[in-house]
Write a structure and sequence with these properties.
Elements (H helix, E strand, L loop, with lengths): L5 H8 L6 H4 L3 H5 L1 H12 L7 E5 L2 E5 L3 H10 L12 H8 L4 E4 L9 E5 L8 H13 L8 H9 L7 E5 L2 H11 L3 E9 L3
Parallel strand pairs: 3-6
Antiparallel strand pairs: 1-2, 4-5, 4-6
Helix pairs in contact: 1-4, 7-8
């Protein structure tokens, strides 16, 4: 399932030949071919953009935003399902919101309302400007979190692939950060309180 499409898997499951050429090293796949055929045939009939998968050893996680697909997939092989998760009614409005929200039962450290990713590569080759920004951030503590590890990372990072974040107390502190150096403020996630 990691490297083949569902139509191919469905076709392979129809073969009765038990060989390493067809089934590879995993004889368990051969033993489970009836369920694999049922699953792969079902998924092959669905739009590839309506679901995704993650394979971990002998487990496969499926993700979808389509409620009908979610229910049908759950009913297809109930004896194979370990866990099934769907958003709770209380969090549905938060998830539908276009703003990046994270539903939490309490704020991190009981105070921080925002998770802010930093973009140090936007100040590339300007270590002095980075140092000044970090010094300013440290003066804002405890309204922001700025650990020694974040400080070292921010100053030494000149590439875009390493993402790290800080926690920010409220909207006014977030606005101050954007006014100070908006180019280093990346994606912002708002923590939204909800109670079960």
């Amino acid at each position: 399932m990691r490297s083949n499409d569902m139509a191919y898997i469905a076709a392979v499951c129809l073969t009765s030949e038990r060989s390493d050429r067809v089934w590879g090293w995993n004889s368990r796949s051969y033993e489970d071919r009836t369920d694999l055929h049922k699953l792969s045939t079902y998924l092959a009939s669905k739009d590839k953009d309506s679901w995704s998968k993650r394979v971990e050893r002998n487990f496969v996680d499926f993700y979808t935003n389509d409620e009908i697909l979610f229910d049908e997939l759950s009913d297809l092989l109930p004896h194979r399902i370990k866990h099934r998760f769907a958003p709770e009614n209380q969090t549905q409005d938060i998830l539908n919101d276009s703003v990046a929200n994270l539903a939490v039962k309490k704020y991190p450290h009981d105070r921080y309302q925002h998770k802010v990713y930093l973009l140090p590569h936007k100040m590339k080759n300007d270590k002095e400007a980075k140092r000044k920004y970090i010094d300013w951030l440290k003066k804002q503590m405890p309204k922001v979190t700025c650990t020694p590890a974040i400080e070292k990372w921010f100053i030494s990072t000149d590439w875009n692939w390493d993402r790290r974040y800080i926690l920010v107390e409220d909207e006014s502190m977030l606005l101050m950060m954007k006014l100070r150096n908006s180019e280093v403020v990346g994606r912002v996630y708002n923590y939204v309180l909800y109670d079960k």
